[in-house]
Request: fold
Amino acid sequence: MDLGLAGRVVIVTGGTSGIGLASARVFLEEGADVAICGRDAARLERVRMDLAIEFGVERVLAARCDVTKAADADAFAQAVQAWRGRADVLVNNAGQGRMSTFATTTDEQWREELDLKYFSQIYPIRAFLPMLEASDAAAIVAVNSLLAYQPEPYMVCTSSARAGVQSLLKSLATEFAGRIRVNSVVLGLIESGQWERRFEARDDKSQSRDAWIAALAKSKHIPFGRLGKPEEVARAVTFLSSPKVAYITGASLEISGGVSRYI
Ligand code: NDP
Reply:
């Protein structure tokens, strides 16, 4: 199916690693021009060069931006405005999870987590809103977690924040209806930078990567017996961004290898 994304301008926050980078690649393969952001300037430049070599320097914009800072999000939007003068799709992907129980989460950590989860949506949406409003096929896709619906006791703070974000997205789907579609992907465990860091920090350093991932999948009761790949999420993100699925809004698509236990 032709997704109708050729010539569109797509923004991917947190586009320098994992799911964001895989999504940027798939959008570029589909013919869209892509603007990515991240906080680490050196990694941003490395990724920009890789994508520019593969897809053409004129089709990629990379901007340093911490999505939890309003001024950064505004500057990113201004850079896109100057670059292409439009934005059709915003993928709010930047972020990470926090492992903690209620007992181990300090007030400061609660505030940090709520700040990251909410404002990584609010600031980019506000900054890109005028350009999205001007598009004839505007879509926002949020990358969220299954924890929003199925909280885990060792991720209390993150799970709670993610549930709130799903509520926010539902409200926005209604408020923006007919102008901007708002959908989300809710993820199980996906092999990415986050899990790479946890693998590096594993207790038993003699354990191979494959063995560590297999044990993780088993301990999480993932029916597929493996973690998902960033590309498998990226394909779903491009699908939800496509003007061809113009009647889908307020939806959340689970990508988890079948790990959810609710109906
Ligand atoms: P990665 O660590 O591989 O990538 C995270 C990306 O986000 C990087 O580009 C990082 O760049 C960027 N980023 C992080 N914080 C900020 C910030 N404040 N401002 C701008 N950019 C930021 O992780 P994933 O690909 O796994 O994660 C992508 C999203 O998916 C996250 O929101 C994560 O919470 C969510 N998710 C992932 C799951 C998984 O199992 N992998 C499960 C459920 C949800 P930099 O550090 O340079 O800023």
User: Anything to note?
Assistant: The chain has two domains: 9-190+234-255, 191-227. The chain has a mean pLDDT of 97. The first helix runs from residue 18 to 29. The beta strands are 9-13, 33-38, 60-64, 89-92, 138-145, 180-187, 252-255.
